[in-house]
Amino acid sequence: MNSSTENNQSVVAILKADNKLKAVELLKQHGKYKILWAKSSQENSLDWVAFAIECGLKVTDVPQEEISRDKDVVVGYDSAGTAFYQVHVPVVEEKEISSIVQLQAESRFPLPANQMELAWRTGKLSHNQMSITIAAARRKQIQGFINKVNNLHPERALLDSEGIIKVYKEIFSGREQNLVIVNAGTHKTQICLAEKGLLCNAVTLDIGTVDFEDSDSEEDTETIERLVRDIRSVVDLFGLEKQFEMPVIVLSDGSNIYETLSESLISVGLNARTSKPSLKKLDTNDTLSIEDIFDYREPIGIAILELEGKNGELNLFSSLFNPHGKEKKKSWIYHTSVTAVAAVIMLLMFVMVSYAEIAAGSRAIDKKLSSLGSEQEIDTLVEKQNIIKEVAKHRVDLVALLNEINESGQKSPNAATNSGTPTPQPPSPPGQSGIELESFHFKKNQQVTITGQVQKKEQLEDFEKSLQGNKDISDVLVTAKSNTGTNGNRNQANNKNNGKSPPPAPGGDTPKNGFTYTITFNYKDFTGGNRR
Amino acid sequence: MLEKMKAKDKRALKLGAFGILAMIAFLFVLDTSGYWAEAKDSFNANNSKLEKLAAIDMTKAQYAGLVSVVPVFEMPEEKETQKFLFQDALNEQFKKANVKSQPWEDMGCKNKLLTGYDVLSLKTTGKCNFTQLLDLLANLKTNPYLVSVEELLIKRDPKNKQQVDYEITLSTPVKKVTKAGHETRLRK
Question: Is residue B161 part of a domain?
């Protein structure tokens, strides 16, 4: 992780080596590496979670992106189960390499593609050819490893063989770029081929220092000879052009066993030598000895790789492992802090805008309502309006009523046949139609009564019908009396008018052979007694 | 929980806390300056006014209808004042219509118009031309003290058919006098 470099953020590296889990916390300060602590589990005690807890790391089931800590964790994967192959292909574009690698892997490795995890790295160019280092491992094996380390929430998983090459370069002060490194552990020996300082191939042999630590023992001597033969075979397998010139570096803590191994390798024609850790790049305050540093060389190697950041390491874990959300990192906009700050800003703006809106709105309403007057004036206005509404309900338009009576008289079909009896001025009682009005009486809550004379009974009937056809007039009752003495009362119903009735028209003024009539009716709801 | 947080999250929380404190301070300043109390009083007063105005809210058509029936109106006074004003206005109108009438007869307050307001009726009789009477009736609504015509009796003069005898009772609203009103007036 680039941010780890020189920013006082340390890296904890854990891996399995020599049948133990080993961990170191490494910090880079002022160009030097400082080992803050180193720890290993008991032999054959290989519970990653328990060991991580022992190392003081937070081990949780929460999603990786929610984990927050001030140190990165990196885990090392044992390369023993990983096959390497180097192919040379014509120079092609980066995007085409993937398909080439897939084809090469399927043809060269004994597993179907869906059961393999692949990683590759392009190497040197020569004669228009490009070398590609392919690493392949069983997917099931990688998944098993990921399951073991997932709760540690590591930043990355790295091949331990890459760590070996890195630690040789940084701590063992190796200068060679192209070399073979022999990393003899207690139970196994790794032979790593590096070109231009990068891992190209690695083979693990099941012989370790415990198998040949007693140089006086015949059996151990045989073992070391076998190991040397195997190493020679591996170097042959690497297919190096000038294999006898290629430096073969045996990592050593200075003990004789590694010297013996180196000498044995020389004896088979290899350009071998031992290399010890150097303190030049380590903080001098370190309390760890050379032996301790040697013992923790693998975790130190991957810790340095992590401190230096991604540099094209072979990543067999990319499709199954998404450490710390690196590849699928959420957009910054989803970050809690951004959300919180945005929420606070919005809240502040809301309060301020609300205040401004309320203040402005209140002032505008105040201004408008003030123009209407004081509350007392508004009370008066409202009261006046209510009285006006009530007065309107009570107010009767008698001119309209007289007009309606007049119009009803004029609408009578027989009206045209009347004689020219003198009539009042328009809107007069219906005298013009031969229907003379003698009196008109209106009183609230009583029926309207009109009296008068007609010459013909048909005229009266027409007048009655016309009144009945008026929407404002109802309950029309007509009482008629012949002026010749015959009772012309047409109505069976009693006259409901219990008030003051106008007297019948004076007899002296009644036309001969005519009728005197009295009509009562209700006008709108003023006279029916149903309103007041 | 705080231990699990990244520095960024902690900083965000601090910013959030600062924002909240700023809001509280802002509201506190507004509160102490009396703005909220003032705004609340103003709001209540305005709300009360608006509620009252809403009670008399009407459409343009409704208003036009109301004005056509009651074109002018004066707020009622107490009985004697109102009676005087009403009679005075009526006399003017009768005179203008050239309708002769007898002195007004006080028929008393028989009905109630609204809470706090009664209806006083005045009656008169006379003789006039029918057209003049119609003119008078048509112009009565311009009397700002009138409620309505309570009763109208028209009888044609048998000797002169252009002439009619009439009896008319007209009403006006009067403000009821409460005890408190008297007391107030006495104190004044």
Answer: yes
In this structure, are B14 and B82 located in the same domain?
A: no
Residues A186-211 have pLDDT tens digits of 889 999 998 888 888 899 998 888 88
Are B49 and B80 within one domain?
Answer: no
pTM higher than 0.80 for the full model? no
The pLDDT tens digits of the residues spanning A44-97 come to: 888 898 898 888 887 776 555 555 566 889 999 998 888 888 888 888 887 788
My answer on whether B94 and B176 are in the same domain is yes
The predicted model gives B68-81 an average pLDDT of 93
ipTM of the complex: 0.76
Residue where the block lists tokens 């004379």: A453
CATH number at residue B162: 3.30.70.60
Averaged pLDDT score across all residues of chain B? 85
The domain ranges of chain A are 338-389, 398-523
A337 vs B contacts (CB less than 8 Å): 6, 8-9, 11-12
Q: How is A254-278 classified by DSSP, letter by letter?
A: S-HHHHHHHHHHHHTT-EEEEE---
Contacts of A529 in chain B (CB under 8 A): none
A404-431 in b/e burial notation, b at 16+ Cβ within 10 A?
bbbebbbbbebbeebeebebbeebbbbb
Mean pLDDT of B27-34: 76
**Based on the domain organization, do B121 and B170 belong to the same domain?**
yes
B115 shares a domain with B41: no
Using a CB–CB cutoff of 8 Å, tell me whether B48 touches chain A.
yes
Q: Are A497 and A448 in contact (CB under 8 A)?
A: no
- Do residues B27 and B96 share a domain? no
Residue that wins the pLDDT comparison between A419 and A477:
A477
* CB spacing of A380 vs B75 below 8 angstroms: yes
In a domain? residue B155: yes
Give domain status of residue B41, yes or no: yes
| Of the candidates A247, A254, A167, A257, the residue with the CA atom closest to the CA atom of residue A207 | A257
Torsional sign, CA B50, B53, B54, B57: negative
Which residues on B lie below 8 Å from A445 (Cβ)? none
Nearest to B165 by CA among B130, B134, B136, B132: B130
Q: Count of domains in chain B?
A: 2
Where in the sequence is the domain holding B109, given as residue range(s)? 75-180
